[in-house]
Amino acid sequence: MAAIHLCRGEVRPVLLDRDETVGDALCGGFLSWRTAERLRAVGIGPMQLGAHPVETLALIAGKSEAIASLPSPGFGLSRHALDTALRRRAVGEGARLVIDKARSVAPGVIEGEEAEHRSEAIFLASGKHDVRGAVRPRQDKDPALGIRIRLPAAEGLRTRLKGRIELHLFRGGYAGIVLQEDGSANVCLALRKSLLAEAGGNPRALLDRLASRHPRFADRMAFAPADLPVDSIGAVPYGFVAQTTEPGIWRLGDQAAVIPSLAGEGMAIAMESGAAAAQAWLAGHDAARFQREFALRAARPIRVARLIWHIAEIEPGARLLAGVSGAMPSLARAAMALTRI
């Protein structure tokens, strides 16, 4: 997104990507209505990419299920489809694509595996993965980790998930489930590391353990083949907000602010930080000023999402959230609004 807006400001940035073929990043898969608006503003329509429309949120805790309408439709869309469209648009606007893997970053220079890349402005958008020289602090004694599987397309799965995104609440974490453009279902979990330890350090064993204790999650996991790949990432610093930065390094997306994924706003933060950083640079502002200003904008959504997350990861809190959301859907919609950026 930053590259697109820089190009529209008559700058021709270098877009440094680690892979020739766009991958399918672990986090993502759901676009909020705000994210969809930002995409349309740069000429990318979610429906044109085959995205699955989402009108309702199902909040599931034990035997309780609460349904709330989204303020406006969201979309299920894989990161592969989204990132491919964004990269294609950036190159089409005039960005120069360079394939290299960044090994470290410092003011004015990125050390890649293939070459050294110098620039007075580095827009750092490495997602939840840190780059040496720009590591975010981790302070949680029981950190969160991310796990993702992709359930293959099936008619039964489509029937269960059509038009909705599900949020399954567990002790110590949650799972979001939503259909993607090809009919598969993205299952993305944020869980405490201690839960993985209880399952012997085996992510699939952890998923099976959760399914054995949560019948509705088990109903979705019934569509998972035994040999289904499991992607994971450790020590996700949910709640992190960059208050400052090094000279010339503009932190974007999860490098700027890491919102608990149950809010469904991670992609919006990525896009809005990219657009805001490009506009700030074009206006002659420095990276430190941008980082302070974006931190202020991200503070409320992050704070509200962290509060909901901490309530949801305790079983009585999860039941309370589901009960209140079922009885008063307007409160669920208010919480959705408060976690938007």
Distinctive features:
three-stranded antiparallel beta sheet, eight-stranded mixed beta sheet, 341 residues, 15 strands, globular
Helix/strand layout:
Blueprint: H1 2-8, E1 14-17, E2 30-31, H2 33-41, E3 52-61, E4 64-76, H3 79-93, E5 96-99, E6 102-106, E7 109-112, E8 116-118, E9 122-124, E10 144-151, H4 155-161, E11 164-170, E12 173-179, E13 185-192, H5 193-198, H6 203-213, H7 215-221, E14 231-236, E15 249-251, H8 266-282, H9 287-312, H10 315-327, H11 329-338
Parallel strand pairs: 1-5, 3-11, 9-15
Antiparallel strand pairs: 2-4, 3-4, 6-7, 7-8, 10-13, 10-14, 11-12, 12-13
What report would you give on this structure?
- This protein is an alpha+beta fold and 341 residues long.
- It has a domain at 2-53 and 77-138 and 237-307: FAD/NAD(P)-binding domain, CATH 3.50.50.
- The protein has eleven helices and 15 strands.
- The strands form four sheets. It has an eight-stranded mixed beta sheet with strand order 2-4-3-11-12-13-10-14. A three-stranded antiparallel beta sheet has the order 6-7-8, with no helix packed on it. The chain has a two-stranded parallel ribbon with strand order 1-5.
- β12 and β13 form a beta hairpin.
- The longest helix is centred in the C-terminal third of the chain and has 26 residues, at 287-312.
